[in-house]
């Protein structure tokens, strides 16, 4: 054991720079590994704070290979009432929570805010677990009542109780009936202001596809049976879509559609959502994933550069005597640097041949999750190889230039 320690200390003293770089690289690698594991644990732990979280499910309408989470209220309520294994079902606005302007009065001063509102049915607080700091879930049984997260309660009213306070709109007021503890960041539920639907909203309207539906079951093992029985016994209706020609005046088209819908049902809630907002919500997970991949790609590149530099330093120091002899025998600095570069380029080619197919396979499998895929150009791999080769050659050249220009007599004598 003492011999191992002495040899280690000798190597550290002789190759200080290489040792420092390798220790730095290992430190960054371990830190990155720990961060990745913590992030994965955080992501896979989403919504596990709910009571019996494994018994909560979201309904999706499926047609062949296509499916969507936006459904209509009659369909959802038919599913809620279909099986005794379903304890409770709830509806929520299926689109991006709307942002609304309002004001609050605090200490005889009026303050203005813009926050997101989520509209739900009262059973929403029975499906999901709300930890109420003030008030209770019963507030959702009264229209124009709201429940707000604790962070917004402090933002609006400071340390005062929020119960009974009003959110003042231009034509109406909403009363705070409950304050719930904020949800964790990895929850599908955002810390929105939650308000109940007006009684009867969307009931019996098969054309109003604007809801998300959630259920809580008595036991998760019963879910496949519930679905199969529902498929056998429930007859779904067809839907009609509208496609506008390119170049159509959107304002006139929306006004015409509004008029036509009003002829069928004057109370139909006509609301326009821009498709880029829907796509942004749909690919929110991929956006976060791309940022995470970019971050750790930079870390991986940094670790690789540190590793290459440490290897070059170690190699050049070990071959210092050989370089000195070559210089005495007439070798030029350029020739010595070229010799080292050839060695590392061969190593780089071997690594590229192994890594390129693996990268292509991994990316192609990931792209299969998208309906529209970006093409995988061959020149991307070539560009990556050129960039990595340039960094490697630059690193090898800089380090070996110093060693190759040292006094060869001194190198041979020292070694």
How many strand elements? 13
Tell me what portion of residues adopts beta-strand conformation.
Answer: 15-25%
Tally the structural domains: 2
Query: Total number of helical segments?
Result: 13
Radius of gyration: 32 Å
Biggest sheet character: 4 strands, antiparallel
- Fraction of residues in helix: 40-55%
Q: Calculate the terminal CA-CA distance, rounded to whole Å.
A: 27 Å
Structural class: alpha+beta
Rounded mean pLDDT score: 79
Shape: elongated
Low-confidence region ranges: none
The sequence of SSEs as H and E is HHEEEEHEEEHEEHEEEEHHHHHHHH
Structure description:
The protein has 2 domains: 12-38 and 285-414, no CATH class; 53-268, no CATH class. It is built from 13 helices and 13 strands. It has helices spanning 2-14, 16-44, 73-80, 124-127, 150-157, 223-233, 250-264, 275-282, 284-318, 320-328, 333-367, 378-404, 408-414; strands spanning 56-58, 61-63, 66-68, 71-72, 86-93, 98-106, 109-120, 132-135, 145-149, 166-168, 173-180, 193-196, 209-217. A hairpin with a 2-residue loop joins strand 6 (98-106) and strand 7. The relative contact order is 0.11. The model has no long low-confidence stretch (mean pLDDT 79).
């Amino acid at each position: 054991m003492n011999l191992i320690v002495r040899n280690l200390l000798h190597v550290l003293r002789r190759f200080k720079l290489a040792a420092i770089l390798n220790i730095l690289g290992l430190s960054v690698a371990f830190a990155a590994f720990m961060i990745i594991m913590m992030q994965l644990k955080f992501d896979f732990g989403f919504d596990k704070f709910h009571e019996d979280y494994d018994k909560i499910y979201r309904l999706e309408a499926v047609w062949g290979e296509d499916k969507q989470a936006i459904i209509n209220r009659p369909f959802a309520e038919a599913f809620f009432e279909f099986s005794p294994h379903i304890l409770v079902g709830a509806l929520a606005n299926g689109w991006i929570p709307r942002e609304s302007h309002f004001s609050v009065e605090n200490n005889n001063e009026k303050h203005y805010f813009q926050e997101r509102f989520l509209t739900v049915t009262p059973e929403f607080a029975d499906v999901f677990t709300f930890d109420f700091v003030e008030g209770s879930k019963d507030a959702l049984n009264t229209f124009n009542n709201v429940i707000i997260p604790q962070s917004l309660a402090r933002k609006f009213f400071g340390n005062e109780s929020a119960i009974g306070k009003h959110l003042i709109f231009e034509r109406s007021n909403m009363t705070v009936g409950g304050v719930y503890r904020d949800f964790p960041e990895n929850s599908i539920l955002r810390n929105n202001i939650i308000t109940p639907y007006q009684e009867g909203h969307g009931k019996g309207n098969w054309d109003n596809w604007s809801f998300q539906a959630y259920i809580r079951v008595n036991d998760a093992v019963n879910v496949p049976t519930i679905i199969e029985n529902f498929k056998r016994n429930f007859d779904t209706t067809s839907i009609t879509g509208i496609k506008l020609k390119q170049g159509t005046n959107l304002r006139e088209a929306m006004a015409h559609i509004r008029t036509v819908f009003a002829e069928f049902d004057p109370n139909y809630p006509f609301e326009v959502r821009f498709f880029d907002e829907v796509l942004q919500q749909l690919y929110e997970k991929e956006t976060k994933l791309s940022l995470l991949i970019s971050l750790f790609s930079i870390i991986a590149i940094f670790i690789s550069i540190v590793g290459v530099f440490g290897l070059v330093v170690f190699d050049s120091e070990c071959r210092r005597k050989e370089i000195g002899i070559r210089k005495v025998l007439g070798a030029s600095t350029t020739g010595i640097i070229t010799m080292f570069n050839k060695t590392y380029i061969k190593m780089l080619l071997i690594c590229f041949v192994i890594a390129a197919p693996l990268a292509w396979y991994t990316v192609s499998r990931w792209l299969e999750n998208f309906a529209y895929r970006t093409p995988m150009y061959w020149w991307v791999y070539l560009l990556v190889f050129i960039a990595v080769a340039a960094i490697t050659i630059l690193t090898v050249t800089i380090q070996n230039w110093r060693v190759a220009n040292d006094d060869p007599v001194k190198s041979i004598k020292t070694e």
